Amino acid sequence: MEIAYRSLQLNDREEFWNMMNQLDYETKFMMYEPGERRKDLSRIEKLIQDSVEGTDFLLAAQADGQIVGYISAQRGRLKRVCHSAYVVTGIREGYRGLGIGTRFFRELDLWAEKNNIRRLELTVLCSNQTAKHLYEKQGFYVEGRKQDSMYIDGKWQDEYYMAKIMGKKEQSKA
Fold first, then answer.
1. Please, what is the average pLDDT of the chain?
2. Is 104 helix (H, G, I), strand (E, B) or coil?
3. DSSP state letters, 9-43
4. Residue range 60-73: average pLDDT?
5. Cβ(126)–Cβ(160) below 8 Å
6. Which of 21, 18, 124, 16 has the alpha carbon at shortest distance from 61?
7. Are 50 and 111 in contact, with CB atoms under 8 Å apart?
């Protein structure tokens, strides 16, 4: 299977929303419950536009003629935090384990270096060991734990706060 990586354009907004909505039905590791995501294309347009302008990062993976995954990083807007970016990524169920996540983070690192981003950060459900392992492989480390962060299927779930300091050889452990 051939996987292409590309930046999204405004005319991709509908397909991108459809892919994110599908993720909501395929995984319990994303923020939205199935059917909860509102079809707010203006929000997606802003996400795409900010990446086109270079303020933020957004990259999609495409296979079988459709978008199958994405990674985004939204930079801090205020002067004191503009060196940091919050990362979100999602890959459709049938396309996991194919190296898409690794490629996403390699491209993210290039963008971060080019844009003077010192700190990348994200959260991940503690139960999502596959994602946590991917993030650690990419140089992220656990900074802390958010207790009872989400309520999924009648159970409280904790999240890890994870970060990566760009250019740092040895990461501290929490």
1. 93
2. helix
3. -GGGHHHHHHHHHHHHHH-SSSSSPTTT----HHH
4. 96
5. yes
6. 16
7. no
